[in-house]
Design brief:
Layout: E1 4-8, E2 10-12, E3 15-17, H1 20-28, E4 32-36, H2 44-50, E5 53-56, H3 80-95, E6 100-103, H4 105-113, E7 117-119, H5 122-125, E8 144-148, H6 153-158, E9 162-165, E10 172-175, E11 180-186, E12 191-196, E13 202-205, H7 209-212, H8 218-231
Parallel strand pairs: 1-4, 1-5, 5-6, 6-13
Antiparallel strand pairs: 2-3, 7-10, 8-9, 8-11, 11-12, 12-13
Helix pairs in contact: 2-3, 3-4
């Protein structure tokens, strides 16, 4: 049996959207992709019973009220329904110890759901001289390096000290809760990946491996294969 992977979707008014790269990335490595609309929060436990893994996809910004802040001037468009549903389903997935892979926005909402916080806009809320994190290049192009931390699941998957990733974000994770650990950072110190110390497979990456697969990126393929493998009962 193929593992059933629930894939989160973006929402704009009454329109749900999802780049098909996410679907192809799941099916390419043996998963059965199921696109999830933004259900009521109370339905999260029923949905989790139906799926073997969760792919939290990219998208717009996250409501800062979720981590105790009011909107920054540079905050973009938010979708409260999506935020609420994803926080609820993440918490239920963690309770049942089912695999989660968060991509870009998905990595950020994963961190918020477990009690972390984030920069609403890295360019105005940090004093560091930052790299270009909103690349002006095709989505499959790897534009900057991430450096991997020792003794992490991500490093065991990648088998590298560093590798290049694509980059399409102006928000980023800031504080990671204690039961999680940072597993990769950019050269400028921006958190690029984190993972759970207590769950089978729970990982967030700030880049888009599903897009880099279009260029046959080896590390992206290994990440997706490891995720699907973790979802097999």
């Amino acid at each position: 049996m193929k593992p059933v992977i629930g894939i989160s979707s973006s929402q704009n008014e009454q329109l749900l959207t999802l780049p098909t790269d996410n679907i192809h990335a799941i099916s390419k490595f043996g998963g059965l992709p199921i696109v999830l609309p933004n259900y009521e929060e109370t339905e999260a436990d029923l949905i989790v019973e139906m799926i073997d893994g969760l792919l939290l996809t990219g998208g717009g910004d996250i409501d800062p009220i979720l981590f105790g802040e009011e909107p920054h001037q540079k905050l973009g468009f938010i979708t409260p329904e999506r935020d609420a549903f994803e926080v609820a389903i993440v918490k239920e997935m963690l309770l049942q110890n089912k695999p989660i892979l968060g991509i870009c926005r998905g990595a950020q909402i994963l961190n918020i759901a477990v009690g972390g916080d984030m920069f609403q806009d890295i360019y105005t809320q940090t004093e560091e001289k930052l790299l270009q994190h909103q690349q002006q290049a095709p989505r499959w192009h790897a534009s900057h390096f991430v450096h991997l931390e020792d003794n992490t699941l991500l490093k065991s998957i990648a088998q590298k000290e560093k590798f290049k990733v694509n980059s399409f974000h102006h928000q980023a994770n800031r504080r990671i809760p204690g039961e999680f650990v940072v597993s990769a950072v950019a050269s400028d110190g921006v958190i690029e990946a984190f993972e759970s110390k207590n769950h089978h497979f729970v990982m967030g990456v700030q880049w888009h491996p599903e897009c880099m697969l279009l260029n046959n990126d080896e590390t992206s393929a290994e990440i997706m294969k490891a995720f699907i493998s973790a979802c097999i009962k």
